[in-house]
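Supplementary Methods, section 5.1.

A reviewer requested that the exact input to the structure prediction be made available. We therefore reproduce it here, unchanged from the version used in the analyses.
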Amino acid sequence: WVERKDVEEVMPHVLKGGYILGRMLDVAEKKGKGKIDFPAFLTLFAPFELSCPQETQRAYLFTLYDVDDDGRVSPQDLYHTISHIFDAPPHQIHQIVNTTFAELDTDRDGYLLPSDFQAANEALLSIMHCPFSTAQ
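The structure derived from this sequence is encoded token-by-token as follows.
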């Protein structure tokens, strides 16, 4: 096991002031109660590798945006994450959220699913792709 606090101490400002790192650790530890099993720790940064398949990156990106871990990204999830990543006024963040949902929420149910992230065009996804390089 790897202690979450140890990772946070070693990498406090990784990826946008620590918010993305915090989400990554949230995803990795799931049931670990402050601990991350070693295989999960080893794969923690795999989606950031340029050689990582785009489908894997998009699936991982989805888990980072699914703040409440309900299997779908709500406008609130998206706003929450984007507001921690970008230094922008609230009205610009709302514009990003509205544009994202207009483009990706094809069934207009008010949620984004993993399949919506997989089907996203590169231009729109690049807005949300803060930790990842889309150039491959």
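The first strand starts at residue 2 and ends at 3. These observations are discussed further in the main text.
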